[in-house]
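We modelled the chain as a single entity of 255 amino acids. Its sequence is:
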Amino acid sequence: SLGIAVRRRKKEVGLEGMNLLIGAHLITSRESADRIPQNTVIVNLEQLRGFNIGARPIYASLMRRLAVWDFSPRNIAQIKSLMHNPHVSRFDIGYTPEMTRHLPQHHTTDVLFYGSLNDRRTAILKGLCEAGLNVKHLFSVYGVERDAAIADAKIVLNMHFYEDSLHEIGRTSYLLANSKAVVSECNINTKIEDDIREAMIAVPYKDIVESCVALIKDEPRRLALEKKGFEIFSKRNQAEMLHDAIVATTFPQTA
């Protein structure tokens, strides 16, 4: 959209242009990490509070050595402080038409949640089942299968893994782009942008079950939320946001 030539690669980086490296926290080989060139930007979508960056020395070394993009001002401050890296820029997550999949709507599931489980997430799913809702949980499911589950759900639930958390816009952006009704955990310490908060039902942890039950019982409200969420999110122009991030990017000098 910006007129920039783009090549998408898997487990490979180039020596020309700018590499945007997503998923660098999954690199387990120091040798592989050390081969990543200086024209690379680490795109960080992880939440540093609770993530225990100290227990991930390879990822920490990459965040010290290379330029970093992050969506959260709180993360950015931590990266600059912990990694002593001044080359950290903010990028926002927005909308591009390619995100919209035009998923067929079946709606045999009341509430869908996908992600790993811990005690606090399991307790909510149990509460939803006890409230009489049809609940589906997925883990490590992507692509066509995940899209089918999203299309089948009336509500998609977003919950924090950690109590003190950032809003997981990497998850909810795709749902809003596909006109899904989203109920999202949003506590007093949750960092969330105002427009995204308005695009979904954003409630504290203790109110999640009650909010899901109420929304399932009120179809006109749910349908209105689907429309409102898409209208709000689709105003966030991803190309413009990327332009701003690219302009702000500086690279460390090669030693």
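As a brief sanity check on the tokenised model: DSSP finds eleven helices and nine strands in the chain. The two ends are 34 Å apart (CA to CA).
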